[in-house]
Amino acid sequence: MAVLNKIRQRSLFLILIIALALFSFVLADLFKNSDALTSKSQNIVATINGKDISREDFLQKVEVAQRQMGPSATNTQVMNRVWDQEVRQAVMETQYEELGISVEKDQMRDLLKTSLATSPEFLNEAGLFDENKLNEYIANLKETSPQGFEGWVNYEKQIAANALSQNYFNMVKAGLTGTLAEGELEHNLEGNKVDIKYVQVSYASIPDSIVEVSKSDISNYIKANKKQFKVDASRDIRFVEFKEVASVEDENAIKTELETYVNGRVVDETGRKDTIVAFSKVKNNEDYINLTAASDVKFDKRFIFKSNLPTEFADAIYNLNEGEVYGPYKDNGAFKVTKVIAVKQIPDSAKVRHILIPFIGAQSAAPEVTQTEAEAKKTADSLLTILKSNRSKFSEFVTNFSSDQGSVAKEGRYDWHPYNTMVPEFNDFEFEGKTGDLGVVKTAFGFHIIEVEGQKNKKKAIQIGTISRKIEPSEATSDKVFRDASNFEINAGKSDFEIIAKENNYVVRPVNGIKVLDETIPGVGNQRPIVRWAFEEDAEVGDIKRFNIPGGYVIGQLVAKHKEGLMSVEDATAKVLPIIRKEKKAKLIRDRVSATTLEDVAAAEKTTVRTANGITMKNPTISGAGREPLVVGAAFGLKEGETSKLIDGANGVYMIQVVKEIPAVELENYQAAANRVEQQKSSVVNSKLYNALKEAADIEDNRAKTQVQ
């Protein structure tokens, strides 16, 4: 009993203890869930109409797309492409689900049959699509190549997605009809016409200088038209670029080195002779260029015409005799020395036909090629033997044996084409022989049986050898650029960025309005690291950072951080100022014009009454005044002989009088016009439907937060 009494006496204290314990438990769980939510948000690239796109899945698709697009595509370009594909897929899938449309098994088979109808591996002996071969192919993939089977599944998904998209768009188009009433309206918009007299008081008659537009005017306009002036978060930066560019001393050193090859050199140092033979006296030009001189551009034995030489130096090089050397000369970012090795007469174009026999491992050889190189050579030689005695079989052999699908339909023929169009071995046979030559030539693509059908326009061609040195900064120059950039970075961090740059004659380049997913910085190209830095959470206005860029450095400073919202007055001024100025000029004109007839308005404003005939609603243009939809609309609201009040138009304030109404010719049936309306509606579906769906979709873009860009 005593214990119970003590518990009762301390009940409030116990309640507080229990409450605190419960609160601690809930709080801990809240933090735990908060971490989970944070983790989830960091792993979700986007949520589109309630569907999440995971970071892992997105990056896997980016990796595949990067391989497809090749090394020339930047990482951001690839990611943006995948992003667009993912958004489109999610937006469209929402529509498919709401409508309950899908691609069933039977339709999928029909789609595959259509898609693979010309693929040789799925055709039977009669040349028809064989579904059993397709089933066998898929089963084999599933059993032997998991990666290949995954690729096949993705292929089927893509075909299904395309079919669904086509079905959806067709359904929308089917619902877009042109009624007879719409046809009649269309006919009347085109056919109803009015002739008018008008006076235009141009806005240009009032000088801009007397129309005051305040910041509050612009601000009020922005608030009244918020949709037009929404902006994403952005950053402003400025930067100084330090380029590693070859100095005059660097260029002179390169020229001096090349002159050594022109003149030759013999140096005797401690009994060892270091000899460089003059380029003009060299016999093995290829080894001399590639090994001795270590040219940046390797020797090319093919002959060239004058038109292939650098324009500025073409005459000087083309007119050299065999063995003579020209240079050093500066061309396309390099110093060069060129020697004419040989001269001959070569046709500038040729016409041939050929049969290509590929072998395993040859470039572009199809997977079904089974011949080894030796077997392919034997086949080519056998066909050549037959053709030498009966060239009429050439077309037949092209159809039966050639793997060059680009020429099979033309009986293996490549019509007139210039010298050096084909790969070197093929080119040499067709241009260095004569018309009628027939032979076998091996290239990277396989064995070609070639017949030269024609050559024309023989002219002088030269074989040249060129020693080339790219003009690059020396190590000393690069070191100096690094020191200059480092010193500027340090000094700008201690003082004013602009002042320090000016004191050192550096050019400061501002870049405003950078968006979080931008990739390019004007002037320095693809510089995603600079954009990331500008949007880092802890980046402060005034911060300075150095970035390595190709061929130098950038010292950047964060100038301003702009939040998502409405455009600032300063940024919107260029767009809004002319609009408000025009509105104020219209009011000034209306306030000063008291006349009620065209003649009196014209006299008061020192202008003339003009006429415009055949005006239509379809094309609301007034001759002598330009496009004026509001004025034309007002004209069609007046009766014949009626004069309007003052109308604010696009190019001035107007008073108009309808002189004549010309109604459209009445038709017995407006079906033709209705058909045109239907066609107009249908034609915009492909270009506008998806964009409309995308705009209406709920898209949460977390790419910047998840750091996938």
Question: How would you describe this structure to a colleague?
Answer:
- With 709 residues, the protein is an alpha+beta fold.
- The chain is built from 25 helices and 24 strands.
- Strands 8, 9, 10, 11 and 12 form a five-stranded antiparallel beta sheet that branches.
- It is extended and about 95 Å long.
What is the element layout, followed by pairings?
Layout: H1 2-9, H2 11-43, E1 44-48, E2 51-54, H3 55-69, H4 75-99, H5 105-115, H6 131-144, H7 146-174, H8 180-191, E3 193-202, H9 215-224, E4 230-231, E5 234-243, H10 248-263, E6 265-269, E7 272-276, H11 285-292, H12 314-318, E8 325-331, E9 334-357, H13 373-389, H14 394-401, H15 405-408, E10 413-418, H16 424-432, E11 438-443, E12 446-470, H17 475-494, H18 497-503, E13 509-515, E14 520-521, E15 525-526, H19 528-534, E16 544-549, E17 552-562, E18 565-566, H20 569-592, H21 598-604, E19 610-615, E20 621-622, E21 626-627, H22 629-635, E22 647-648, E23 652-662, H23 671-683, H24 685-696, E24 699-701, H25 703-706
Antiparallel strand pairs: 1-2, 1-24, 3-19, 3-23, 4-18, 5-13, 5-17, 6-7, 8-9, 9-10, 9-12, 11-12, 14-15, 16-17, 20-21, 22-23
Question: What's the overall geometry?
Answer: extended
| Averaged pLDDT | 88
Q: Approximately how much beta-strand content do the residues carry?
A: 15-25%
The major sheet is characterized as: 5 strands, antiparallel
Radius of gyration (Å): 39 Å
In total, the number of strands is 24
Distance between the termini: 71 Å
Number of helices: 25
Q: Which regions contain 5 or more consecutive residues with pLDDT less than 50?
A: 1-39
Percent helix, as a range, is 40-55%
**Class by helix and strand content?**
alpha+beta
Subcellular location: Cell inner membrane
Organism: Algibacter agarivorans
Keywords: Cell inner membrane, Cell membrane, Chaperone, Isomerase, Membrane, Rotamase, Transmembrane, Transmembrane helix
Main location: membrane
